[in-house]
Amino acid sequence: MTKYLDCPQMAGHTGIRNIKMIKLMILVVLLALILLPATPAKAGPHVQPGTLTAAVSLSNYDPGETTDYTFYFILGTDWSPGGEMRIVFPYLFYSSGFTWQSCQYIHAGSTTGTPETLNLGFSIPLSGDLVIHQTSGSTLPAGTTVILKFKGIKNPAEAGEYTINFSNGLDSGSYTLRLPSSPIPSVAFPISGDGEIRAYNPYTLESIPAGPCATGSIIEFYPDAAEGWYWDRWTDDASGSSTSDFRKQAIITRETSIGAVFLDTV
Known about the structure:
Layout (H helix, E strand, L loop, with lengths): L7 H28 L17 E6 L7 E9 L9 E5 L5 E13 L9 E2 L3 E3 L6 E4 L11 E10 L5 E8 L4 E8 L6 E3 L2 E2 L2 E6 L10 E2 L4 E9 L3 E8 L11 E5 L2 E10 L2
Parallel strand pairs: 11-18, 12-18
Antiparallel strand pairs: 1-2, 2-8, 3-7, 3-9, 4-5, 4-8, 6-7, 9-10, 11-14, 13-15, 15-17, 16-18
């Protein structure tokens, strides 16, 4: 007669192994959650706190002319009610015809990139700067694009390059005007080495090709190196960036060249 013997010791070992296996599986799942790259929950520019992407467009780029100015800037941090954005000119910009025309914004979470009306105020203190007051009643989150239009700003009398600075105490940036010029808004992506520049609208996520584009077009771009190559640096209008600026933004108001250098790893 065959007898089947219970083996409580063996059963205990099996239970211990099962518990260890469960713990290992839990650990693997937790590590996967930590290491997998986060997927953005919404559209909007990928911004670095403290930075402010800015641009300016004019209706007339001739020196000495009184013209319309449009200011664009992408916030790097939240802009709360009561905050100020100071726009500093290297020349006397005010004229008797100076007036506010419109103010719009594209919310950081927009998936259409469509501007909406925004209520802000402005003042011109004794310093001669243009100060924009955040009076909308709600916080504008990082990644929001603000578009300000003014009439009656006087261009400097002499031809040359003029850098306009922007700062709200948290973010700062600048844009250099070139007078005279007849800018045709377009973007080019020259490459040195083997790779590509991937450019897209950060709100709609639509790809943006090289060529003509609308004034004020907002793009986000990053380098995509070919196998065996690596991205080294940005050049042309994106030059001066550090390796931490892997993903950047630009607002196109003139002919713009965004170049990248790729180096062979061998």
